[in-house]
Amino acid sequence: METIDHELRERANQVLAENGFVQLPSQFQVGGIQFDVPDVFLGPPGTLSLTILLDRPSGREESGRVYWLAQRLARALDAQDSRRSMNVVIVGGPPEDKLLADMQTIARVLVLDRTLEVKRLLGPLLPFGPLATMGVSMSGLEGLDNFVRGSKESSGLQSLVRAASEGEKAVEMAYLRWIDSSIERSES
Amino acid sequence: MTSSWKLDSLVIENFRSISGLWNIPLNADIVLVHGPNGAGKTSLLSALELAATGRIGFLEGKSGAPEPTLVNRNYPLGHVELALRSDTATSVGRFEFDPIARRGSAALSDRASADFVERCFLPQTVLGRLLESYSLGDQKDSALVRFVKDLAGIEELDSLIDGLHAAGHVARTKALSRSWSKLEDSLQSADERRRNLARDLTVASAASAEATTALQVLLSEVVQSDSASDQASTVAQEVVRAAEDAQADIIRVGGLKVRLDSIVAALTASHVDVQSGAASDLAERAIGDRSALERWELADGKTLLRILNECRKPLGLSEVTGQLLFDAYTETRTRVQERAAIEREEEQLRLEQTQQISAFESDLATIRADIAEARNAADAIPITDDVRNLIDALRLVLPTVHSGDCPVCDQSFPAGLNALVDHIGSKLARLSDEAEAYSALSERLDHLLTRELDATRSLESAQSVRLPPAHGRPISDMVRNLNGMEKQINEGLALLQTVETSQARLADIAAVRSTIATAEDGLRVLMEEADFDGEATEINERAKEFQIELDRMLQSSRFRVTLGGRVQTAVDLVAERQRRENELRQELQDATTRFSNLSSVSSNAKRRKDSANELRKEAERVRSSLINDVFDTGLNQTWADLFSRLVPTEPYVPQFQKQMNNLRTIDVTLETVLPDGGTSGAPGSVLSFGNANTAALSLFLALHISAPTEVNWLIFDDPVQSMDDIHIANFAAVIRQLTLTHERQVVIAVHQRELFDYLAFELAPANPSDELLKIELERHGDVSQVRWDRIRYEEEKAISSF
């Protein structure tokens, strides 16, 4: 008996679409061979992939149908010397081990279930978004700006912060100069 | 920073397992290297590392220098050369090497080389221990810590925090700042001085009050009433002035007293003689004594004067008159005694001369008799005159012989002095048998002639002495005459002394009388000067009465002087203590001002120190915040993203623990986090071996991609050895994303042919600008070979719609 998780499948469609995957019509051809697959996607620009979403097969016959579909599609691509890699997303949980092993010989197989987010489970297919801190180097001293500006000794503290770029000794010397200048100026 | 470098080409010649010369292009987005084990994959990547950075990481930890292992064992020399390019520049790293040394320069800067080693190149040997090396707890200078510091700009914060370490405590700042240390010393010194001066002022004020009270008490005794303090000064001045007057009185009265004492002494000395009648008796006796002397002068004195002048004449003395009789007598006796002594001495000398001449004449006669006898004996010896003369001549020669040279004929006698003397002696013996006797007589005669000459000279010397002749009249007569006068002379002398004594006493009496008269005048003058009348009439009584009055005046003056001195001393003491009090008050005011100024300076310095310390604390807070940001929002998110792409079904996702403290070290602790946010153990203990390796690989990628670098390369040496097939496929997908969206240049070396083909398929160019290089290595015996294939984009037409 087939168990279909429509909600999960919808979510997968949505995630793929959001990440630049282009959905093909359910009926398409590869080298003249006709296929009828409900959810099939081409990878986003700059990638070469063909991704199909299949519901988890519930029985032996269903498993065979799924396998042969993938096999036929892979052979069709090979026959056309296509460089596209094939991704098979099985929605609803892992299939039986034999089917999974067989499928992995011809395609990258991803399994969607409800243990983890769909986006995470589809992660290997998705393009990178902007990564945190990527390409940006922080400056620790900038974090002191507000504190220094708000201090009554703003000018002196700024000189200490400036010296930090020249190293610990420079800061120590600047600190001593600042302290000494208050003493020597007063004494003079 | 320079724009990112791209790998362009690599030349390898005789490097490690690679023999011959390889010139390999690397100018593609993805470079896949394949070769069976031993074909040179790792050598190729090591050559790239050496030319890029100047080092080969996996050789550095091994013992011994790496040079012997650089060059291929079948060749003496080798080299590697890496060409890089960027949008605007090129760079070439080249090293030549032999078994002893390597020479050359790296293509990358030191900083870029460090990035290459830590975040770009993942050697086969590193992946397995990557997690372990990143989870050692507190780390100070690991690659990860350096990375975090770089990313967060921590280095500058650390410099600021460390540089402001002294601001954390006054003592630390003082230890560094000589000015502050000096200031604190000055402040402490000023405080002590201020306190000491306050204490001294209290004591000085009390002392001043005490002196003022003492002066008032003293003045009240003088004026017999209490003097107000404002009147005390006036009273004291009067007392002091009175003392000065009294001092003048003492001098004046003292002078009167001295003069009075002199008068009293004169009166005491002359009082008895003047008052008795002995004075008139003395005058009469003096007249009688004078008459007796005059009678003696006319009688005995005249006779004695005549005799004395007679005695003086032969002595060469002048004639005297009667007044000098006694002195002339003494002079004459003395002269006569001297003359008598001289005459006795001359007589003795004359006697001794006579005896000496007589003795010399007797000796001379004896010598002359001996000479005549010796001549006769010599003449009696029977030798001729010529022989005798020759003998005499030879005898005269003998004393002149002093060496072996003959003084007569100058002939030299080699045997010396004794031989020549013996020769002359034998000659003398041969001349005459009587020569010896004649010679002895001749010597004696010479001796006698010498003695005769000496005796003659002595006699002539004695006879030549001229002594004065004897006096005609013996001096003894004069002595007798003078001795006979002595008694009468003494009688006259006694009379003369008596007269002189009487006259002296008469003169004394006259002088005393004069003194008394003078004293009476003097006493009257003194009493008038002292304004003292007195009651006594007799001069001695008046003098005594006046003396008592002067003593009283002196005592009164001395009392006033003493009192004035005490008052003056008390006044001086008051002035001195008030001056000291005022000085101390002024000094205290100055010291208080200085202490206040120094305190202000110290407060200002402390305020700056506190501000600096607050800055330090803020820097520590910012530092901690930044580190957490780097770990939480930076590394952890990127790591989780990458890990999930590689193993999307793994619920345990690795991450760095949040930094929970503000310690100066960075606490690197790994853990895993579940989808519900709960945390679990370290990746190594929770994940499978394969997933733990994947966690390490994803961490390496996260470190690479989380911070900017000028080396945008990712170089892997067999990175998927322990991955299952699905993870490998995911890895390939991640690599494609990195090249596509982050423009990374990727080099992957694998040893499995199927995997190589799969990756070539999976990573095939998907854009017209993309290229993929397939490099294949082979080895046949000792010969290694390389070939490559550049894969370009091809339009994909396999899929179409109906």
CATH class of the domain at 6-165 and 647-792 in chain B: Alpha Beta
Sheet with most strands: strand arrangement of chain A: 1-4-5-6-7
Largest interface: A-B, 84 and 84 residues
Largest beta-sheet characterization of chain B: 6 strands, mixed
CATH architecture of the largest domain in chain A: 3-Layer(aba) Sandwich
Q: What is the number of helical segments of chain B per DSSP (H or I, 4+ residues)?
A: 22
Outline type of chain A: rod-shaped
CATH topology of the largest domain in chain A: Restriction Endonuclease
Walk me through the structure.
- The complex is a heterodimer of chains A (188) and B (802).
- Chain A has 188 residues and is of the alpha/beta class.
- Chain A is built from seven helices and seven strands; from the N terminus they run H-E-E-E-E-E-H-E-H-E-H-H-H-H.
- A five-stranded mixed sheet of chain A has the order 1-4-5-6-7, with helices on both faces.
- In chain A, strand 4 and strand 5 (49-55) form a beta hairpin.
- The N and C termini of chain A lie far apart (98 Å).
- In chain B, strand 5 and strand 6 (102-105) form a beta hairpin.
- Chain B contains 22 helices and 17 strands.
- Chain B has a six-stranded mixed sheet, with helices on both faces.
- In chain B, helix 10 (178-223) runs antiparallel to helix 18 (539-646).
- Chain B has helices spanning 41-53, 57-60, 67-70, 110-120, 124-127, 130-134, 143-152, 154-163, 170-176, 178-223, 229-275, 278-312, 325-379, 385-397, 417-431, 435-464, 475-529, 539-646, 683-686, 689-706, 725-741, 753-762, and strands spanning 6-15, 18-25, 30-34, 78-85, 90-97, 102-105, 121-122, 137-139, 653-656, 666-668, 670-673, 679-680, 713-717, 745-750, 771-780, 783-792, 799-801.
- The chains are: A alpha/beta (188), B alpha/beta (802).
- At the A-B interface, strand 2, strand 7, helix 6 and helix 7 of A face helix 7, helix 8, helix 10, helix 18 and helix 21 of B.
- Strand 2 (27-30) of chain A pairs antiparallel with strand 17 of chain B, so a sheet runs across the interface.
